[in-house]
Amino acid sequence: MSTKEERERIELLQGTLDLLILRTLLRGPAHGHAIAKTIEFNSDEVLQVEQGSLYPALHRLIKRRWISVEEGTSENNRRAKFYRLTRKGRKQLKVETSKWDKLAGAIARILRPAG
After folding, report:
1. CATH number for the domain including 80?
2. CA-based end-to-end distance of the chain
3. What is d(CA 67, CA 63) in angstroms, rounded to the nearest whole number?
């Protein structure tokens, strides 16, 4: 990664990656690499998801029963774990999205005060 890319990279707030994973899995089951690439693509490459962050987050979400995991075969015929949003995860996605909207609004009010 170049120095310019490092300066433009944005660190995710704690818990934000969980929200992004849940949102990504709303589209359907995916393996870890596909989840990371989808987040990167949808953020216009601003957000980079490192394996060292992704897999602990996936394990945390499994433990909370917000996602489930099953073995499968990836598009390039390799064994892979596919993660799927659970019913509990769908409910939590709504909760986490609401929290994010509140946080983003509060930060916006501080950065751009009215009047």
Report:
1. 1.10.10.10
2. 41
3. 8
